[in-house]
C-alpha cells in the first residue's frame, strides 16, 4: 500500500520561502513519477510540478517556473518542493501524488487523472 505523507506547510509572508516534503512508502518508486498539485478554495486542483523518480526529469507549471524546485532524495524516499518568492496566489492546500506511467511524457502528467496515489495535503498560506 503506497503512502504519501506531506509536511512543511504553514503561514509565510509574500516573498518568503517554504519547503514541502513528501515521505513516500509502500513501493519501490523507480518507475514512478512524483508530482505536486495544489487546490485553493473554490478552485480546481492545479498541477504544480512533477519529477521522474529514477532520472530526475522535471516539469513545472508556468505559474511556478523559476520560483519552485521539485527534487527527490532516493535514500530517504522523499520528494521535496522548494518554494521561493511566494505570492498570495500560491495559497492553497498542496498535495503530493504518485503515478506509474508507461513512459515519461511531461505534458501528459499535468492532470490529476494521471495519478493514482495522493497524500492528505498540507496547507500553505501566503500573506500579503
Write the layout of secondary structure elements.
Blueprint: E1 3-7, E2 10-13, E3 18-25, E4 33-39, E5 46-52, E6 58-60, E7 68-73, E8 78-83, E9 92-99, E10 117-118, E11 122-127
Parallel strand pairs: 2-11
Antiparallel strand pairs: 1-3, 3-8, 4-5, 4-9, 5-6, 7-8, 9-10, 9-11
Q: Can you give a write-up of this model?
A:
This protein is mostly beta strands. Helices cover 0% and strands 48% of the residues. It contains no helices and eleven strands. Strands 2, 4, 5, 6, 9, 10 and 11 form a seven-stranded mixed beta sheet that branches. The chain has a four-stranded antiparallel beta sheet with strand order 1-3-8-7, with no helix packed on it. The chain starts with a strand and ends with a strand.
In short:
The chain is mainly β and 128 residues long. It is 0% helix and 48% strand.
Structural class: mainly beta
Low-confidence segments, given as residue ranges, are none
Query: In whole angstroms, how far apart are the ends?
Result: 40 Å
As a percent range, the share of helical residues equals under 10%
* Topology order in helix (H) and strand (E) letters: EEEEEEEEEEE
The fraction of residues in strands falls at: over 45%
Quick one: overall form? Answer: globular
Mean pLDDT: 96
User: Care to count the β-strands?
Assistant: 11
Characterize the main sheet: 7 strands, mixed
Q: Output the radius of gyration.
A: 14 Å
Amino acid at each position: 500500500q503506497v503512502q504519501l505523507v506531506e509536511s512543511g506547510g504553514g503561514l509565510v509572508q509574500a516573498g518568503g520561502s517554504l519547503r514541502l516534503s513528501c515521505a513516500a512508502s509502500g513501493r519501490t518508486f523507480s518507475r514512478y513519477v512524483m508530482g505536486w498539485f495544489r487546490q485553493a478554495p473554490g478552485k480546481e486542483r492545479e498541477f504544480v510540478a512533477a519529477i521522474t523518480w529514477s532520472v530526475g526529469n522535471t516539469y513545472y507549471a508556468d505559474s511556478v517556473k523559476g520560483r519552485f524546485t521539485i527534487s527527490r532524495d532516493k535514500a530517504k524516499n522523499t520528494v521535496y518542493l522548494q518554494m521561493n518568492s511566494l505570492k498570495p496566489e500560491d495559497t492553497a492546500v498542496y498535495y503530493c501524488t504518485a503515478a506509474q506511467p508507461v513512459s515519461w511524457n511531461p505534458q501528459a502528467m499535468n492532470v490529476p487523472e494521471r495519478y493514482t496515489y495522493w497524500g492528505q495535503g498540507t496547507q500553505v498560506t501566503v500573506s500579503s
